Amino acid sequence: MILPIYGYGEAVLRKVCEDITPEYPNLTQTLSNMYETMYNAYGVGLAAPQVGLPIRLFVIDSSPFADSDDISKTEAATLKDFKQTFINAKILKEEGEIWGFNEGCLSIPDVREDVFRHETITIEYLDENFVKKTEMYSGLIARVIQHEYDHIEGILFTDHLSMLKKKLVGKKLQNIMEGKARPDYRMKFANLKIK
What we know:
The chain has four helices and seven strands, in the order E-H-E-E-H-E-E-E-H-H-E.
């Protein structure tokens, strides 16, 4: 089932999310809905708060990045095959060069800005079967993970922008809160009912 994506200004997007257990109700259906919602909106990642759930859960499928001309064949192969569920994630380490990349967010349609993040991360998480994993990721996969991880910490990519950039996108953010954004996927806006 395709869920509405919560837009900028929704309170759930600012919550530090809670861990879940294997007994979390309807987890398999929730995961299926999140992947379907992400694909419907042409996203590469989606965090639970973006669909109104204040839990430490996000999903990623980086395959759309594999066709980019800006990356190596090696990284393209890695991106093409990367699809992962992250439950109760905790970033243990961020390291390497800090580099910029133009990011967007399904909760903040029509806003894209350069965000600077570490090149490599080490993350501990549970997969969809609640198997504990500790992995190191670099490049675009690390970036997508950091972006989605921010969501479960109540942080949006716009929080990483300079004061000047925040001021420049301020009107667009206000428009999203007022339901004036018109993406081609369902959204729930802070000051409106679901469209």
